[in-house]
C-alpha cells in the first residue's frame, strides 16, 4: 500500500463529516419558522439550493478520493500489464469526469450563495429602513451580474475539461500533447480568473457586511445577526484567498507545488470546512431572528425613528 493512501482516507473521512453536517443543517432548516413578512426570506430560501448542491459536490469529492486510492493499488490487483492498463484507463476517465462535475456543482453553489449573502445584507438593512433603497437594488443587480459571470466561467471551465481530459490518457501513446497543451493553458488561465473573480466578490460582500455591522452596532437586540453575517463574510474571504493562492501557485509555479498530503489536509480545513461553516453561520442567523428581533417590525425599525440607547435595551 502506498504511504499516501492514509491521506486520501483522511480526506474522504473529513469530507464525509462535512457532508453529514450540511445535510443536518439542511434538514433542520426546514423546521425554522417562515414568516411572509420576513425581510430576508429570499436570502434564506435561496440558501437551501447551494447547501444541497455543495453537499452533492462533497459526495463526488469523496468518491474521487476512493478512486484515487483504487488507482494507486491497481498494480497489485491486476494479473498482467494489459489488465492493469485497461483498469487504470477506466479509473482515470471516471475520476476526471467526477472531478469536472464537482467543479460545475461548485460554480452553481458559489453563484447562489453569493446572491443569498447579498440578500441577507439587504434584508438586515430593510429591517431598519422598511423600504428598498436604490443602493440596495443596485447591489442586488451587481450581485446577480457577478453571480452569472462566475457561473458562466465555471461552465466554460467544465466544457473545456470535458473536451481535453478524455484525450489526456492517450498522450503517452499518441502525439497529442502539442494539440491539447494550448487547451490546458487556457483551462489554467480560466481557473485563475475564476479564483480572482470569486475573491473579489467575497471582498465586496465583506465590505457590505461591514456597512451592515456599522448600522447595527448600537442595536443590541439584533447585533448578533449582524456579527454572524460579518463573520461569514470574513470566512468567505479567507477561503477564497487560499483557493486563489493555491491556483496561482499551481499554474505559475508547478514545480514548487507542496506535497499532496499537505494540499489534501489544507483543502479540507481552508476550503471545504470553511465553506460549510458559512452555511452553519447563516443557519444560526436564521434561527436567532425567529424571536422577532428583526423578522417582525419593531419600534426602532422605522424610517422616522432612529435607534437610541433606550431602544436597544428593550
Automatic annotation (TrEMBL):
It comes from the Eukaryota. The keyword Membrane applies. Keywords: Membrane, Transmembrane, Transmembrane helix. The chain crosses the membrane at residues 6-30, 42-63, 101-127, 139-161, 192-215, 227-245, 265-285. This is Uncharacterized protein. It comes from Cylindrodendrum hubeiense.
Amino acid at each position: 500500500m502506498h504511504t499516501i493512501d492514509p491521506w486520501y482516507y483522511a480526506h474522504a473521512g473529513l469530507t464525509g463529516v462535512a457532508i453529514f453536517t450540511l445535510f443536518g443543517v439542511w434538514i433542520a432548516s426546514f423546521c425554522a419558522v417562515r414568516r411572509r413578512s420576513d425581510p430576508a426570506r429570499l436570502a434564506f430560501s435561496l440558501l437551501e439550493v447551494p447547501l444541497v448542491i455543495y453537499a452533492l459536490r462533497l459526495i463526488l469529492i469523496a468518491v474521487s478520493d476512493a478512486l484515487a486510492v483504487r488507482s494507486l493499488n491497481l498494480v497489485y490487483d491486476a494479473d498482467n500489464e494489459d489488465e492493469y492498463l485497461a483498469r487504470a484507463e477506466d479509473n482515470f476517465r471516471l475520476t476526471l469526469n467526477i472531478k469536472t462535475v464537482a467543479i460545475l456543482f461548485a460554480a452553481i453553489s458559489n453563484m447562489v450563495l453569493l446572491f443569498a449573502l447579498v440578500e441577507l445584507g439587504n434584508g438586515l438593512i430593510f429591517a431598519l429602513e422598511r423600504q428598498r433603497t436604490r443602493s440596495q437594488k443596485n447591489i442586488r443587480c451587481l450581485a446577480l451580474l457577478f453571480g452569472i459571470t462566475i457561473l458562466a466561467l465555471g461552465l466554460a471551465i467544465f466544457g473545456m475539461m470535458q473536451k481535453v481530459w478524455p484525450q489526456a490518457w492517450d498522450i503517452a501513446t499518441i502525439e497529442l500533447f502539442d494539440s491539447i497543451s494550448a487547451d490546458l493553458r487556457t483551462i489554467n488561465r480560466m481557473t485563475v480568473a475564476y479564483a480572482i473573480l470569486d475573491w473579489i466578490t467575497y471582498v465586496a460582500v465583506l465590505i457590505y457586511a461591514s456597512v451592515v455591522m456599522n448600522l447595527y452596532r448600537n442595536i443590541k437586540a439584533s447585533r448578533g445577526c449582524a456579527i454572524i453575517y460579518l463573520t461569514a463574510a470574513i470566512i468567505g474571504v479567507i477561503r477564497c484567498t487560499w483557493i486563489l493562492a493555491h491556483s496561482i501557485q499551481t499554474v505559475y509555479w508547478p514545480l514548487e507545488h507542496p506535497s499532496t498530503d499537505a494540499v489534501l489536509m489544507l483543502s479540507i480545513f481552508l476550503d471545504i470546512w470553511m465553506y460549510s461553516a458559512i452555511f452553519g453561520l447563516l443557519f444560526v442567523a436564521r434561527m436567532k431572528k425567529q424571536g422577532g428581533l428583526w423578522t417582525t417590525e419593531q419600534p426602532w425599525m422605522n424610517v422616522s425613528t432612529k435607534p437610541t440607547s433606550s431602544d436597544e435595551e428593550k
